[in-house]
Amino acid sequence: MPEDHDWEAYKVPPTRTPVSERTTSVPNPINFFQSAFSYVLDAPVTFVREWIERWQSRNKSYYYHQKFRRVPDLSQCLDGDYLCYYEAEAQWRRDRMVDQEIVEIVRERMSACKQREGPNQFQNCAKEMELLAQVTKAYQDRYGDLGYHGNARTCMMKQKHRMMEERKAAQ
């Protein structure tokens, strides 16, 4: 492609918009209203918004996920300490949701391995199958048979009964 343009071959077409020639000395009222709007309404709003944005950029914080501190278990709460009971219940619910997500992630990895390997899934996905069996057994041991309305107290009682049965079986 040549660097020199042939301006004679490719002429720019003339514009069809006529140049306005001022014939009066009276100012245009539209220009007056535009400038009044700009100074009265737009300028203060723009100033306040820019001030808020500057203030927020100084105090920038990122919320990826909320981090909770670990609270005492229900077995460590004193009698009648209802705030401790509430915090332990909330902690138990968060732990249960985390454990549910762990089981779901391992299950998704297992299904992805099965999809990827096809007929060889039993020999190539043995590690994922074993991990899924361990995770689901641990989840079932801790939260199984509690139902939808299970809480920290019934979960603790279930674990206590399971430990007592294991001690009896060991003797």
From TrEMBL:
Q: Does the keyword NADP apply?
A: no
The UniProt entry, under Pfam families, shows: NDUFB10 (PF10249)
Q: Which InterPro entries match?
A: NADH_UbQ_OxRdtase_su10, NDUFB10
Q: Where is this region: Disordered?
A: 1-23
Provide GO CC annotations from the record. Answer: mitochondrial inner membrane; respiratory chain complex I
> What is the membrane topology listed in the Swiss-Prot or TrEMBL record?
Peripheral membrane protein
Q: Which UniProt keywords apply?
A: Electron transport, Membrane, Mitochondrion, Mitochondrion inner membrane, Respiratory chain, Transport
Q: Where in the cell is it found?
A: Mitochondrion inner membrane
Note whether Iron occurs among the keywords. Answer: no
- Give the family from UniProt: Belongs to the complex I NDUFB10 subunit family.
Q: What does this protein do?
A: Accessory subunit that is involved in the functional assembly of the mitochondrial respiratory chain complex I. Complex I has an NADH dehydrogenase activity with ubiquinone as an immediate electron acceptor and mediates the transfer of electrons from NADH to the respiratory chain.
Concerning PANTHER family, the annotation shows:
NADH DEHYDROGENASE [UBIQUINONE] 1 BETA SUBCOMPLEX SUBUNIT 10 (PTHR13094:SF1), NADH-UBIQUINONE OXIDOREDUCTASE PDSW SUBUNIT (PTHR13094)
Q: What is this protein called?
A: NADH dehydrogenase [ubiquinone] 1 beta subcomplex subunit 10
Q: Which organism is it from?
A: Struthidea cinerea
